[in-house]
C-alpha cells in the first residue's frame, strides 16, 4: 500500500500529470508550500496553470517524457489516457507513479482529523459552506475545494496539521481510497456510467466506503435520499442524519423563500428548535447542503451562533448558480449542473426567483452521460421557458457517433419543452440577443466551457447603445 509522509521528504521532487485540474492544482500547492519541489504538465494553459506559475511552480504546457526528468514521484489525474507519454516514461524508468485519489487518501492520513464530503451532487457547495465556517474558526484547517471560493482566495488553503477538509468523488470508485474520520454523504444517484454498471454498483461502492470510516468516526448522511437509506445498515461508525422530509436528527422546517429565491428556515435538533437560518444562496438543495454543514460544524465543536452567522453570509462558490452580471436588464447566471437531478434543482431554484422568462443554455458533458441519461435529461428542463442545446463537451471521451446534441434536443421537445439546437457559441449568443427581453434570465449550464457564452454577452455592456440591443 502506498504511503506518503509529508514530513520525511522521501520524495523531494514531485511531478503532476494534469496539474491544471482543480484537485490536482490544490494538491500541488499544498506540497509546494510544505517545501517540496513541484512541477507539472497540462495539455493547455489556463488560469489555474497561470496561478501555479505565479507562485513558483514550473508548469509545462504539453506532455513530454523529459518533463518527468529527476522526478522522485509522479501523480496523475484520472483524465490522463493510458497512452500519455509521461505516464509511460514513468513506467519505463520505474519512477514511482500514483493516481490522484490514492495520493490524496494517503495525504489525509497525515492529519489528526479528516473530513470528506461525498455524494453525486452538491460536494463543492457543501465543502465551500463548511470551509466558510471553518475559515473563521480557531481550528485553522487545511482545505481542498473543487471550485474557487472567494473567502479563501481560491480552491486551497494551507492550515494546521490537525484537520483537513476535502471533497471525495466516487468516480472510478475513488472514495474507496479515502479514510476520513468524518464522512458526509449528500446523496447517491446514477452518474459516471462510463465506469459504474448502474445504481446497485454505485451503492455497493459506497457500502465499501463505509468500511473505511473508523468505528469511533462519524458518518453524516441525508436520509431524504432513499439510496442512502437502503445501505445505511452496512455502516459500523457513528451516524448523524439530516433531512427536510425524513425524521432525521437535524431537520429544516418552516421553509420560506424571498423574492430572490433564497430560503430561510428553522433548524431543529431532535425536534428541539436550534434557531432560524437565512441563506444568501438559492434553492432547496442548498438547505440540505447547509444542514450537512451544520452537522459537521457542530460535531467538531463550533458554536451554533458562529455556524449560523457564517452560513448566512455564504455567497456561493464560482460556477454554482453564480450571478455573473447584467446585460442591460437581463440577468446572467452560470451553473455547473450537468446531471438531470442537478439541472432540475438549479432551474427550480431560479424559477422561485422570477416570473419572467428563463433561457437555459445547456452544454451536455460527455457522450456517455448524454446517451445513458438521455431520458432523464429530456425531462429536466421543465422550469425553463426556452432551452438552447450546445454541442456535447467531450472532456475525456472520443465521439463514436452514437449520440448528438440534436438527439437530446428532440427528446426535450417530446417532453413538451421548447428547445433548439445551436452548435456554436456565436450562434447561441446571436440567438439570445435577438430573443431576450428586459428582466429575463439567461442561465448557462454545464461542466464544460459554456460559461464563456455569458462572459461574451457581458462584454456587450461596453457598447454605448446597450438598450438598443436588449428590447
UniProtKB/TrEMBL annotation:
EC annotation from Swiss-Prot or TrEMBL: 6.3.2.8
Biological or metabolic pathway of the protein: Cell wall biogenesis; peptidoglycan biosynthesis
Binding site for ATP: 119-125
Annotated compartments: Cytoplasm
Domain Mur ligase central: 117-296
MF-aspect GO terms: ATP binding; UDP-N-acetylmuramate-L-alanine ligase activity
Keyword match Cytoplasm: yes
Domain Mur ligase C-terminal, first and last residues per copy: 319-448
Gene3D superfamilies, A to Z: Mur ligase, C-terminal domain, Mur-like, catalytic domain, NAD(P)-binding Rossmann-like Domain
Top EC class, one word: ligase
Keywords: ATP-binding, Cell cycle, Cell division, Cell shape, Cell wall biogenesis/degradation, Cytoplasm, Ligase, Nucleotide-binding, Peptidoglycan synthesis
Chief location bin: cytoplasm
Record GO cellular component, one term: cytoplasm
Function: Cell wall formation.
Protein name, entry field: UDP-N-acetylmuramate--L-alanine ligase
Source organism: Soehngenia longivitae
Gene name in the database record: murC
